[in-house]
Design brief:
The protein has about 260 residues and is mainly β. It contains two helices and 13 strands, in the order H-E-E-E-E-E-E-E-E-E-E-E-E-H-E. A hairpin with a 4-residue loop joins strand 2 and strand 3. Keywords: Signal.
C-alpha cells in the first residue's frame, strides 16, 4: 500500500509539473499562428500618383484587395491620370498669355485593372516594413479633350485684338504669333473623343504603419500601355499625327497611399 501511495504521489507530481510546460507550448503555437495569419480580410487604399508621363502630379488611384491566404491576394484598381507628350513645354505669347506650343488635345486616361499580390517580406504585426509584389492588367480608356486657344483674327496682329475666338489648336490654321492665350480647360468638352487601349504593370509596394487596421506606404512600378492608333496630343504642320505621337506609352511611376483594413 505504501508503495502504491508513493507511486501515485510521484505520478501526480509529474503530471502537475508537465502541465505548465504543455500550456506554454500550446500558447507558443497559438501566438505563432496568430503572427502568420493576418487579422484582416479586405483592404481599401487611396493614393496620389507620380509618373514619367504626367506633370507634377500624375493622377489618383483607388485599390480594393481581398486576401486569399497569408501570402496571396487578389485586387481590382482604377487609376485616373493625365498623359502628357514628352515635348510639351509651356511658352509665353506675344500678348502675355501662356500656351503649350503644338498641343492640340489633353489626354486623360482611366485604367481599370485586376491583378494579384504576393507577400515577399512580411513585417511584424505592429511595426516594420512589408514588401509586396503586384502584377495587374486591364483596358485603358483614353479621353481626348480638345486643347483650345484664344486666336486673334484681327487683320493686323500688332494692334489690340478686336476679333478673337476660342478654337481647338490646328497647325494648318493657326499661327503661333497670333495666339493670345490658352482658353479655359473645358472649352471643348462637348467634342471629347474616346480612344481605347490596354495596359499591363508590375510593381513593388512598401507598407508601413499598423498592421491590423490601417496601412500606409509607397508603390513603385513600371507600366506599358498601347493604343490602336497614336493619341494626337501634339500636332505640327509638316508631320503626321502618327509620326509625332506614340501608340506605345511606357512609364515608371510612384504612388503614395493610405488605407484601411477590416
Amino acid at each position: 500500500m505504501r508503495t502504491l501511495l508513493v507511486f501515485g504521489g510521484g505520478l501526480l507530481a509529474a503530471v502537475l509539473g508537465l502541465a505548465p510546460q504543455g500550456q506554454a507550448q500550446q500558447l507558443k503555437q497559438t501566438l505563432a499562428s496568430n503572427n502568420d495569419e493576418p487579422s484582416y480580410r479586405k483592404e481599401l487604399i487611396y493614393g496620389v500618383n507620380f509618373n514619367t508621363r504626367g506633370g507634377l502630379i500624375g493622377g489618383a488611384t483607388v485599390r480594393s484587395t481581398k486576401l486569399l491566404n497569408q501570402d496571396w491576394a487578389r485586387f481590382w484598381s482604377i487609376d485616373l491620370v493625365e498623359v502628357k507628350h514628352p515635348k510639351e513645354q509651356k511658352s509665353g505669347t506675344f500678348y502675355g498669355g501662356v500656351i503649350v506650343p503644338g498641343k492640340s488635345n489633353y489626354f486623360f486616361v482611366a485604367r481599370p485593372s485586376v491583378g494579384v499580390q504576393r507577400v515577399i517580406f512580411r513585417k511584424a504585426p505592429d511595426s516594420g516594413v512589408q514588401v509586396n509584389g503586384l502584377l495587374s492588367a486591364g483596358p485603358s480608356i483614353g479621353l481626348l479633350l480638345p486643347y483650345y486657344i484664344t486666336y486673334n483674327y484681327t487683320s493686323d496682329p500688332q494692334v489690340n485684338p478686336t476679333d478673337y475666338r476660342n478654337e481647338q489648336f490646328d497647325p494648318q490654321i493657326h499661327e503661333e504669333r497670333r495666339i493670345i492665350d490658352r482658353a479655359p480647360l473645358f472649352s471643348g468638352v462637348s467634342n471629347t473623343d474616346v480612344q481605347v487601349g490596354a495596359h499591363i504593370r508590375g510593381a513593388l509596394s512598401f507598407e508601413y504603419g499598423r498592421y491590423r487596421d490601417a496601412v500606409a506606404g509607397v508603390e513603385v512600378g513600371a507600366l506599358v500601355e498601347a493604343y490602336t492608333k497614336a493619341p494626337p496630343i501634339i500636332r505640327a504642320r509638316t508631320l503626321s499625327d502618327e509620326a509625332l505621337n506614340d501608340r506605345f506609352l511606357p512609364s515608371v511611376y510612384l504612388t503614395v497611399y493610405l488605407g484601411s483594413r477590416n
